[in-house]
Amino acid sequence: MEDYSVKGLIPWLYYNDLPRAMKFYEEVMGFEMVVDQGWSKIYKIRDGAYLGLVDGEKGYHKASDTKPVIICINVHDADAWYQRLVAKGVEIERQPQESERLKIKVFMLKDPEGYVLEIQESLPGALSI
Description:
The strands form 2 sheets. Strands 1-4-3-2 form a 4-stranded mixed beta sheet, with helices on one face. The chain has a 4-stranded mixed beta sheet with strand order 5-8-7-6, with helices on one face. It is of the alpha/beta class. The protein has helices spanning 18-28, 78-87; strands spanning 12-15, 32-36, 40-46, 49-55, 70-75, 92-99, 104-110, 116-122. The chain has 2 domains: 1-60, 2,3-Dihydroxybiphenyl 1,2-Dioxygenase, domain 1, CATH 3.10.180; 65-129, 2,3-Dihydroxybiphenyl 1,2-Dioxygenase, domain 1, CATH 3.10.180. The longest helix is centred in the first third of the chain and has 11 residues, at 18-28.
């Protein structure tokens, strides 16, 4: 297979209130903004994994109440993430639970405009990354 030199992946999320979303991803999630394009921002989650936030009035798409996507963030310790987010006052949509079939521990929350974030830890034998 040829090496097409993919450097990373950036899913773009569209917001009515970009500053509010920025505050959430910086202060609550702890992500660092690495590129400021004015009406869009790129946050580094880890090497090669980024999240783009866009002003819904200026981007390719418009902000919408329908959010048919889940941003899954695979972590080393879901319990530590859960404790950290609860301590920051985040409302957890789905409490931590283990999936015997998938061999993962997972919980879910929503960002300020309703995008679902799934915090997932792979357990031994996981059907995930």
